[in-house]
């Protein structure tokens, strides 16, 4: 479930038109339409307005949870990491491109960060250059999921990982980029380091 679907469902559940929501929240109908089509992502301020209006949590709005309301709806600031060179040390100060907010408690927010996409290798998954991908830190692979990884001699990549017998297939979502296949021997030699799992995307809007 994603934000566009959640917003449409909440609007229809409450028998509201796009015009009504736009008027109530001082937004434009065009923006509401773009939200529901997945062509535009809301700002933190808009998420707060929608959360308060529909009486649901931000996590519910953006599809992280199916629980509509939580007690604590505060935001925590987490870093945005942008990789400018191939390095296994992603979590270093010089890679911090700024900060954004996540609807998590201060303790839980330490398990998350944003990764700034640097190319169009995941474009068919609707992830483009300069988009921010929220990453949950974990050191193991989940099959057929978008993972942030480091591959020896290649660098940090956001890719879909497919388990195939003793091999791992590292798939881009753009045919212009080549997949990488890692053998059991590669894995034994620590060619791959798992950094985390993609949770959701904040789309870059060129003002």
UniProtKB/TrEMBL annotation:
UniProt-listed SMART domains: HTH_XRE
Coiled coil, from the record: none
Pfam families with a match to the protein in the record: HTH_3 (PF01381), Peptidase_S24 (PF00717)
Entry keywords, A to Z: DNA-binding
InterPro entries: Cro/C1-type_HTH, Lambda_DNA-bd_dom_sf, LexA/Signal_pep-like_sf, Peptidase_S24_S26A/B/C
An example Gene Ontology molecular-function term: DNA binding
Domain HTH cro/C1-type: 7-61
Thylakoid is among the record's keywords: no
Alphabetical list of Gene3D superfamilies matching this protein: lambda repressor-like DNA-binding domains, Umud Fragment, subunit A
Name the record gives this protein: Transcriptional regulator
Lineage: Bacteria, Bacillati, Bacillota, Clostridia, Eubacteriales
């Amino acid at each position: 479930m994603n934000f566009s679907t959640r917003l449409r469902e909440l609007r229809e559940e409450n028998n509201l038109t796009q015009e009504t929501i736009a008027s109530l929240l001082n937004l434009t109908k065009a923006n509401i339409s773009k939200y529901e089509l997945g062509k535009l992502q809301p700002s933190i301020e808009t998420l707060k307005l929608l959360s308060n209006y529909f009486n649901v949590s931000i996590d519910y709005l953006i599809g992280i949870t199916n629980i509509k309301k939580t007690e604590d709806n505060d935001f925590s600031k987490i870093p945005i990491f942008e990789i400018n060179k191939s390095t296994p040390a992603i979590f270093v100060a010089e890679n911090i491109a700024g900060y954004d907010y996540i609807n998590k408690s201060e303790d839980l927010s330490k398990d998350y960060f944003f990764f700034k996409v640097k190319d169009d290798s995941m474009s068919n998954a609707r992830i483009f250059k300069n988009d921010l991908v929220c990453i949950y830190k974990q050191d193991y692979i989940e099959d057929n999921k978008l993972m942030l990884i480091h591959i020896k001699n290649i660098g940090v990549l956001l890719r879909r990982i497919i388990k195939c017998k003793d091999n791992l297939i590292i798939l881009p979502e753009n045919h212009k980029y080549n997949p990488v296949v890692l053998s059991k021997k590669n894995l034994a030699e620590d060619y791959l380091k798992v950094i985390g799992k993609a949770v959701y995307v904040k789309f870059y809007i060129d003002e």
